[in-house]
Amino acid sequence: MSAPTRLAVGCHLSTSDGYAQMGRTALRLDASTFAFFTRNPRGGNARALDPDDVAELRQLMGEHGIGPLVAHAPYTMNLCSAKPETIDFARRAMAGDLERMESLPGNYYNFHPGSHVKQGIDVGIELICAGLNEVLVPGQGTTVLLETMAGKGSEVGRRFEELARIIEGTRHDELLGVCLDTCHVSDGGYDVAGDLEGVLAEFDRVIGLDRLRALHLNDSKNPCGARKDRHERIGQGHLGLDCFAAIVRHPLLRTLPMILETPNDLDGYAAEIAQLRALAGEREA
Ligand code: FE
Ligand code: FE
Ligand code: ZN
Q1: How far is the CA of 1 from the centre of ligand 1 (A)?
Q2: In the chain, where are the structural domains located?
Q3: What is the DSSP string of 216-253?
């Protein structure tokens, strides 16, 4: 008998008690992937990884089929800032994060492309490409994901065309993919709730679906096109439960790692993970 593949679904977890502890928490929540910040999300320096701790996480992941993981770069990282020192920090932070992630090869590193802060979208894209061309190392074990953005302020990455131009302008584009955030694309004007197939067809036409490597599952407090970026719990916002049911049942999407970034505590995440597994038709354990 062939049971449907188990979803790789999980949520953001804190690194404060170490990496192996994130794996144990994931198991407790019935999560089969998770996200974590590679350093303090507000910026600053990263702690060195403890090799024993990381080895223990890798063993847990192997034993229990957890992964691939979707690490998240700090929000403050802006590869297309107007300030040279901010760009410099962003490049050093990303290079350092990717170097540390070599101890967890085969996973993903997701980042917000950046905000061009009145320099215009063309300069923004140029600077992002320049940063990636400096930082990406051929043969590295981590695929870097550009996150689709809501288009708040001067965010680059609201339109699929912008992400396509970044990929095109980056030398080692074999190291790049896209993470689609359902709240962000809806806020950005793509009607994922009303026309999922249409949005995926547009993604395929502009970027190519082979680039789609991960999903951020968030409902939105605001209607399509609002450009606000306020996440809501699954089924409680403008996207609605049917949208997420369609996603977890979709043959092309259900195999991707899915990360919840909804306003929840761990119990709330466990409930959403169970809800998504039920919607996907997984049998109760
Ligand atoms: Fe994000
Ligand atoms: Fe996100
Ligand atoms: Zn967001």
Answers
A1: 38
A2: 13-279
A3: EE-EESS-TT-----EE-TTSSSS-HHHHHHHHH-TTT
